[in-house]
Amino acid sequence: MSPRLRAALRAAFVVFGTIALTAAGTLAPAHAATAVAASTIDGWEETGSSNVSSLTGGQGVATREDGTTLYRGVGSIPSSVRDQGWTHVGDPDIANGYVFDAYEDQDAATAKMFRVTTPQGAGYNYVHQLEPGEKYNNAFAAVSPDAQWLVSGEWGDTDRLLVFPAPVLNPSTPATGGTLDRAAQITLDHRIRDIQGCDFVTATRLLCASDDHSTDLWPDRLPLQQIDLARPLDGAEVTGHVTSLGPLPQRSFCSGTFETEGIDYHPASRTLRAQVIQPGICILSTTVHRYQPAAQALRTAAEPSKAAAARTPVVFVHGYNAGPGVWGQLKDDFKAAGYTDAELFAWPYDTSQSVNEVLAGQFASYVDGVRRQTGAAQVDVVTHSFGSLTGRWYVKFGGGQDTVRSLVSLGGPNHGTTTAWLCAAWDQACRDMTPGSYVQKQLASGDETPGAVRYATFWSNCDAEINPDDSVPLNGATNVAAGCLDHNDLLVDDGVSAGVRGFLAG
User: Fold this and answer.
1) Lower Cβ count inside 10 Å, N or C end of the chain?
2) b/e for 219-258, b at 16 or more Cβ within 10 A?
3) Which residues contact 485 (CB under 8 A, 6 or more apart)?
4) Which residues pair with 150 in a beta bridge?
5) β pairing state of 69-72 and 60-63
6) Which tens digits make up the pLDDT trace of 469-488?
7) pLDDT band at residue 433, thresholds of 50, 70 and 90?
């Protein structure tokens, strides 16, 4: 929100109080339908609009999974948050039932804060100390479809968006609040200005509402801008291509300056909402414009969606003391074979935690997010080393027999490895990998390859990390001897890569 409107709304809130709220309702009752003109937004058709009070709903909007809407405004900041100096709230987002709010401390201007409210109502604050050159503005929070990354933006001219681990949902963040460091940035190929809100439409596309009133960067005032990412967010640097789709509506019986605010996309209903604060004496009313994908856009998207439905998404699970980056070579091989970035996912997680008590549940949530994002009923899971135990526990005990089509284990300690005794004294994951551990006994009990899931293992007789070598194969699986390879060479070997892709295609 611009300083002009922020000051006006604060004054209205203090001076008019309840009278202002009543006036706002009189001028523009919540959810009152209004006539619409033809849309000027490329690829989207405006289907209607409603109005909310700018005091309690003019800063942002998000949609819950059940289709109900959440609004944020100057008057919706909890007193406990305001008392800490966080006096401005931005455009929120909702992921897996968790509400993400973006806050600014406009006086100190040394940090920004993201507040997460759980489905049970608990609130946790995550504070990010500003880096050199970073602006204090915290206009919005947009959570990636896999619920692992949070995107935020700065006011003014910029050629980047900031990427953070999604608090609470990304296991690299503290569970109940704390500090939040930036993970990466989205570097844009064209400058943008005064972005008030963004939301993900797909894993590689955001839509953003700009409050740019000039035309030196883009031909339209108050443009809706589309940002297409080179790949889904994974915690590393990524580029984004910016396109302007046209101006957001500026319709009112009042004269003066309009201001764009929050934006929201609800995948289940394919509804896009964009907020515009009314000008002049109508400032206490915010219009929420609703859009659906244009018929031509739906037809254009139909063929890719059919192809995606025919190919099962792949979820990669890295091993102990590693990260998603280990899958770079194998993901490149999958893409060379026809997969797209939108079909390949690498789960980031803290490998020091318990397989059965912590990781399997987190992995179940991640798989559910992938399925929601892609529309696929099932996923293929490719694991390496310690990751095999989490994947297998999820399939055997966590409901994965319905959601996993195939599970591949590359050098997994499926019956334990004596090497894990070296770190078992202080690390739970190592204890889970030791022969005879609780996790090993449970996974080995009964059927090692339960359900209709297809299983494959790849093992090496030169793997120094897995002792004995025959710990990897599973009864009932397709067990492949990969030859004399080091433990991590299973991730990059051409023969193993071809074998994995062939198994999943079979």
Assistant:
1) C
2) ebbbbbbbbebebbbbbeebebebbbbbbbbeebeeeeeb
3) 460, 462, 463, 493, 496
4) 143, 164
5) antiparallel
6) 899 999 999 999 999 999 99
7) very high
pTM: 0.60
Q: How far apart are CA 496 and CA 383, in angstroms?
A: 13
Neighbours of 41 (CB within 10 A): 22
Q: What pLDDT sits at residue 268?
A: 84
Among 69, 62, 56, which residue's Cα sits nearest to residue 94? Answer: 62
d(CA 186, CA 1): 22
Alpha carbon distance, N-terminus to C-terminus of the chain: 54
Nearest to 285 by CA among 120, 10, 57: 57
Tokens read off for 148: 């692992």
pLDDT digits 0-9 by tens, 167-199: 999 989 999 999 999 999 999 999 999 999 999
- Name residue 160's beta-bridge partners: 187
Count of all residues that appear for the chain in the document: 506
Nearest residue to 334 via CA among 319, 318, 314: 314
Tokens coding 225: 């801008």
Show the tokens assigned to 250.
Answer: 């500026």
Are 458 and 480 contacting, i.e. CB atoms less than 8 angstroms apart?
yes
Beta strands 98-104; 88-89: pairing state: antiparallel
Q: Is the previous residue joined to 223 through a cis bond, with omega within 30 degrees of 0? A: no
Within 8 A by CB and 6+ apart from 9, the residues are: 1, 54, 55, 58, 73, 74, 283, 284
Position 327 pLDDT exceeds 80 = yes
| DSSP E strand boundaries for 248-323 | 259-266, 271-277, 285-293, 314-317
H-helix or E-strand spanning residue 369: helix 360-374
d(CA 462, CA 467): 10
Q: What are phi and psi of 386, to 5 degrees?
A: -55, -30
H-state helical runs in 63-102: 79-82
> Using CA atoms, how far apart are residues 142 and 14, in angstroms rounded to an integer?
30
